[in-house]
Amino acid sequence: MAAEHSAAAFPTLATLAPQVLARGLSANLPANLSRVLRLADKGGPVPVRQAVQRQAGEVHVYNVLETGQHTVVLLCVSEAKARTEAFLLDAQGGLVRALRYEGGGEAHDMPAAEAAAAYAREAGLWQELATRRP
Predict the structure, then answer these.
(1) Is the pLDDT of residue 59 over 90?
(2) Pick from 83, 104, 96: which is nearest to 123 by CA?
(3) Which sequence spans correspond to the domains of the chain?
(4) For all residues of the chain together, what is the average pLDDT?
(5) Range with the lowest mean pLDDT among 3-12, 25-34, 53-62?
(6) Residue 61 burial (C-beta neighbours within 10 Å; 0-12, 13-18, 19+)
(7) Is the distance from CB of 77 to CB of 70 less than 8 angstroms?
(8) Which listed site, 45, 46, 56, 75, has its alpha carbon 20 to 30 Å from 25?
(9) What is the predicted pLDDT for the residue at 134?
(10) In sequence order, what are the beta bridge partners of 1?
């Protein structure tokens, strides 16, 4: 699951960051997620701009940190399963880390094969949306 491979597979993914940063909704990453991803010194909320897409009982969120050289965190929240998958990306759109947590439980790193498959699904959704937009 090399970051270079992931970024190459989804070339448009990184180009969304400046668009979302300029026009996205203002929000904060949850403090617990910010802490686990090591995005905040003390685990506080991290300001982001975000794009949100709802599909088939899932909420997909493309978050761009307001500070951090276009660091992106993708979220996929399954309402029915009460499960969240989080993907930390580098500025080129390559996968750095993949986490999963259920309900109010602790976040755990996904095994490499699961992370690669889940990231491919989530990145593919955003890639498709990016190529459909003008």
Answers:
(1) yes
(2) 96
(3) 3-132
(4) 84
(5) 3-12
(6) buried
(7) no
(8) 56
(9) 53
(10) none
Strand partners, 49: 26, 64
pLDDT score of 2:
41
Q: What is the DSSP string of 47-63?
A: EEEEEEEEETTEEEEEE
For the segment 62-73, the average pLDDT, to the nearest whole number, is: 86
Q: How far is CA 4 from CA 53, 97, 107, 112, in A?
A: 26, 13, 25, 15
DSSP string, the chain: --HHHHHHH-TTTTTHHHHHHHHSEEEEE-HHHHHHTT-STTS--EEEEEEEEEETTEEEEEEEESSSTT-EEEEEEETTTTEEEEEEE-TTS-EEEEEEEETT---EEPPHHHHHHHHHHHHHHHHHHHHH--
**Residue appearing with tokens 């685990």:** 43
pLDDT at 16 over 90: no
Longest dimension (CA), the chain: 39
pLDDT number for residue 131 = 79
Higher pLDDT, 85 or 42: 85
